[in-house]
Sequence to fold (138 residues):
Amino acid sequence: MNRQIIATDKAPAAVGPYSQGTRLGDFIFTAGQLGLVPGTKDFAGPDIETQTRQALENVKAVLEAGGSCLEHVLKTTVFLQDMGEFGQMNGVYAEFFPENPPARSAVQAAALPLGGRVEIEAVAEACDCTSQEDCCCK
Fold:
């Protein structure tokens, strides 16, 4: 199988030697996404809720660039700077996965890149919809 590199300007550029995402067959793997505003090195805000929302928007953008969407996410990993903020992160996270949420791990990291409060990565199945009208990836 051929590995495809996923790149989009709708998510922050990689801050190191890695890709925003990769696709292998029907699986899409995103790099960890911080709550950075695309095209900048600025966080969407200082708080966990704003950074979580932006991180998930960034995950969504990478998935869509790879031919998938949040509906097809199988597993996420959430890295928190402070596990005490789990409840606030979880409230925002639930808005993005209101039904049949994917499997998830959440861990506290000693530090996150650029001083972020949260970083989220995902593994998803590629969309197999046969037409745009039937596609849930909108």
